[in-house]
Amino acid sequence: MIGIFDSGIGGLTVVKSIIDHLPEYDITYFGDTARTPYGTKSCNTILKYASENTQFLLDHGAKIIVIACNTASSIATKYLRQKYNNIIPVFEVISPAVKLCLKTSTKNRIGVIGTRATINSNIYEKKIVEKQPSAKVFSVPCPLLVPLVEEGWEKKPETKMILKKYLHPLKTKQIDSLILGCTHYPVLKQIIQEKIGKRVKIIDSSIAVTKEISEYICQNPHICKSLGKNNKSHFFVSDITDQFKKTAESILKKNIDLKSSGGTS
Amino acid sequence: MIGIFDSGIGGLTVVKSIIDHLPEYDITYFGDTARTPYGTKSCNTILKYASENTQFLLDHGAKIIVIACNTASSIATKYLRQKYNNIIPVFEVISPAVKLCLKTSTKNRIGVIGTRATINSNIYEKKIVEKQPSAKVFSVPCPLLVPLVEEGWEKKPETKMILKKYLHPLKTKQIDSLILGCTHYPVLKQIIQEKIGKRVKIIDSSIAVTKEISEYICQNPHICKSLGKNNKSHFFVSDITDQFKKTAESILKKNIDLKSSGGTS
Predict the structure, then answer these.
(1) Looking at the domain assignment, is residue A41 inside a domain?
(2) Per-residue confidence at A263, pLDDT binned at 50, 70, 90?
(3) pTM of the model
(4) Which chain A residues are within 8 Å of B42, Cβ to Cβ?
């Protein structure tokens, strides 16, 4: 099956996109809720956690790994590819978003929002400028958005005010595209669109990575054959609480059976 | 020395209080920043982490253990006392705050704010009613306050709005005392006082636990003798980032040498 991991439950926006666009494939999700969030942690700690999460998914029969977490994607992709790429393809959420953004951007004035770790890593700017040296990239860390989403506060006025404050420097830069550099943010897409203005194209990495996975499966029939196609999804977390279950179901818009991974943390 | 642990850096409000009131004693602090926050995690996970943190402090020579984290205090105190109390006294931040609150409350209408885990555990209400059966306790979870403090947003208007929203149900209950049931919250004490009204007495658990430790040391000269008195403090965290260092120094109001605990997580 397709194995997807995230630091918590934000990566479920990627699961939702894969289920919406590739409904036949079996999915196993692992959310490292016992150690969430990754966005405030150091590189070495994130490498260790990403590696453990990948092993958990491989042990459960994953034939494709998707890092559905921008922080882990920015820090651990190279390491995980070196460690596992001979065995299994490793997808991440950053390059697909960059590719999609450069395809649609008209003026190459690109905004990026993400956790502090993702923005500090400068990964989006590096990848964008590598492909389009004339592009101007403006990045803003938005560390409070993850807790606001996890609290289900996406429609509260305080969230709108905080978003307005975070997006203000990007508005003054007259960006034409805005990359949502955190898998929690698609939940806030509508308000972000409202605050940044209608003319800015919002790039949602969950949709971008789904397109890449879909193309890869088409081009690699042996991988396609190895994937379960029973329309089944399994959801594991390293720690279960009522709030995680509530937010997870709100992101997926359906009830799910959230299982404990049993001592991964 | 006095060993103090917390899920992250909020427990430094307790360190600050101990340094202010008992400056001669050596302190070792351990903040489990690699796995912070505890407030959203399950009981079993918190028991495991609290036990590992205590062992870390004992290995570094602690003669007194202080759980400077309400979530861990509410869930792990009994367990840690059973496990370590023959070796070492274990202090927590809840009972001292309850004791101080009941001493000063005039109408016994008491408000409690804390993380979701602390409030769900109902520990404050149980302890208050056990000592004062006629007391009325009103509890409100405030899960966004920890990330706001950790971001250094304590003076931002959004924080004031969020606090106003959180405190509103307590205002309508006409409480006369408010327990800050999370060690991060003393950082917000001034705004909390502003929003809840001047007549409400705010109970700060960092000050309450310091008083208990001070009394215990006076009454137990063999413990007093065993404690280092070189006015030295050591700060360990399971994960170091610039933001943690910045917030830690802002809480302690001085520069510190933040050391890695080396693989506790």
Answers:
(1) yes
(2) low
(3) 0.82
(4) 239-241
Dump pLDDT digits (tens) for A146-205. Answer: 889 988 898 999 999 999 999 999 999 999 999 999 999 999 999 999 999 999 999 999
Confidence of residue A14 (pLDDT cuts 50, 70, 90): very high
- Specify if A123 maps to a domain: yes
Q: Is A265 among the domain residues?
A: no
Same domain, residue pair A171 and A188: yes
Cα separation, B37 vs B49, whole angstroms = 11
Res B22: pLDDT: 94
Cα dist from B32 to A86, A183, A255, B214, B252, whole Å: 35, 25, 33, 25, 17
Amino acid at A137: V
Identify whether residues A110 and A33 lie together within a single domain.
Answer: no
Complex ipTM value: 0.75
CA distance B34 to B49: 11
CA distance B97 to B138: 15
Q: Are residues A113 and A148 in the same domain?
A: yes
Catalytic residue among B43, B142, B182, B218: B182
Q: Does B35 touch chain A if contact means CB atoms closer than 8 Å?
A: yes
State the CATH number of the domain containing residue B184: 3.40.50.1860
Is residue A53 within 8 A of residue A249, CB to CB? The reply is no
In a domain, B265, yes or no: no
How does pLDDT run across B183-226, given as a tens digit for each residue?
A: 999 999 999 999 999 999 999 999 999 999 999 999 999 989 98
Please write the tens of the pLDDT for every residue from B155-187: 999 999 999 999 999 999 999 999 999 999 999
The 8-class DSSP code of residue B113 comes to: E
List the single best residue of A32, A33, A40 to mutate versus B (max B Cβ within 10 A): A40
What total of structural domains would you count in chain A? 2
Q: Does B217 touch chain A (CB under 8 A)?
A: no
Among the listed residues B151, B152, B204, B155, the one whose alpha carbon sits nearest the alpha carbon of residue B14: B204
Residues A127, A122: Cα–Cα separation, whole Å: 9
Q: What is the pLDDT of residue B263?
A: 57
**Which of B189, B205, B221 finishes a domain?**
B205
Domain limits for position A138: 94-205
Q: Are residue A83 and residue A164 in the same domain, yes or no?
A: no
**Residue A211's pLDDT is what?**
96
Would you call B243 an interface residue with chain A, using a CB distance cutoff of 8 Å? yes
pLDDT, mean over chain B? 92
Q: Residues of B with CB below 8 A from A148's CB? A: 144
